[in-house]
Write a structure and sequence with these properties.
This protein is of the alpha+beta class and 291 residues long. It has helices spanning 20-24, 65-75, 82-90, 94-102, 113-122, 128-142, 164-168, 183-195, 201-205, 209-216, 224-234, 245-254, 267-280; strands at 2-6, 9-13, 32-34, 39-44, 47-54, 57-61, 145-146, 158-159. Helix 3 packs antiparallel against helix 4 and helix 4 crosses helix 13 (267-280).
Length: 291
């Protein structure tokens, strides 16, 4: 990929390895919404951004050259060679080769760890539209207001994600407008641990995988799946392999008796290809579609 500044924003050229829908609508993030054709507006790291597919590439509107290089270029993981990773994952594995070929423009986002922690706590036993709605209400309730680039559909303005300190100071009763039920207590425990210094997310991210998972699971309501989601999506631990319903079915049906270790150091990227492919091809579990 190549990058250049234009009057409209930052243009990513040769962006065939960056597909907006595959990256932003695959279940790894919850604050991006389509706005028109081939465009998304989202909020991350306290910034609003519009990304749009154009004939010349992908345009990032709403950031300076400095913000692109320090924030958005790492956020979209643009410097990683995903083609090489797909070749490695697909070597001798026709199932994974097919899953990778289905979504060659999918990238793993480098999300803010505290936001990912809270988001995946809220994701438990929830569907993506409802998760997005709860997070939107949380940000409107406790986040700092931002100036949106365009109107976001079905959201009350644009807000940054709340800081750990702001969320930790709330009560279960104050969170009742979120309509997140029992998850409110889990959110508060996570925020209070981070704000109070009992949980250092940066240090946790650097621990061996099993130790990091165990530390996250000390938070009320955080089990294996949520911990691995935080590790993969919030801490960019590419060796983490979240096991949700889709992945459990995919592993049982396509890789019986196998574990995440078969995918090596890029297990998390393999998980994302498998998740997206199996979710879009449920017939593989009934024999209606070839695996």
């Amino acid at each position: 990929m190549q990058y250049r500044q234009t009057p409209q924003g930052i243009l990513i050229e040769d962006a065939g390895e960056f597909d907006l829908a595959q990256t932003l609508d695959c279940g790894q993030c919850f604050r991006w919404e389509p706005v028109g054709e081939n465009a998304y507006q989202g909020i991350a790291m306290g910034r609003c951004l519009l990304v749009a597919r154009q004939e010349a590439g992908v345009l990032l509107k709403g950031c300076t050259w400095e913000e692109f290089n320090t924030l958005w270029r790492p956020y979209f993981d643009l410097d990683r060679d995903y083609a090489r990773i797909r070749r490695r994952l697909g070597r001798g594995d026709p199932i994974m080769r097919q899953a990778c070929a289905y979504a060659p423009g999918l990238r793993l986002l480098r999300q803010e760890p505290f936001e990912a922690l809270c988001s995946f706590i809220l994701s438990q036993n929830n569907r993506i539209p409802r998760i997005k709605a709860i997070i939107s209400r949380l940000c409107a309730l406790l986040g700092e207001p931002l100036e949106p680039l365009e109107s976001l559909p079905n959201t009350p303005g644009a807000y940054a994600f709340p800081t750990p300190q702001r969320l930790a100071g709330a009560s279960v009763e104050e969170l009742s407008p979120l309509r997140c039920g029992y998850r409110a207590a889990y959110l508060l425990d996570a925020a209070q641990q981070v704000a109070g210094g009992r949980l250092d997310l940066a240090k946790t991210a650097a621990l061996p995988l099993e130790d990091a998972r165990r530390r996250l699971m000390e938070i009320k309501g955080v089990g294996n799946k949520v911990a691995d989601c935080v590790l993969l999506y919030g801490m960019h631990r590419l060796d983490a392999f979240p096991m949700d319903v889709w992945i459990k079915r995919a592993m049982a049906h396509l890789y019986p008796g196998e574990t995440a270790e078969r995918f090596g150091p890029y297990a998390g990227i393999a998980q994302q290809y498998l998740f997206h492919y199996s979710r879009m091809h449920p017939g593989i579990f009934t024999g209606a579609e070839p695996a």
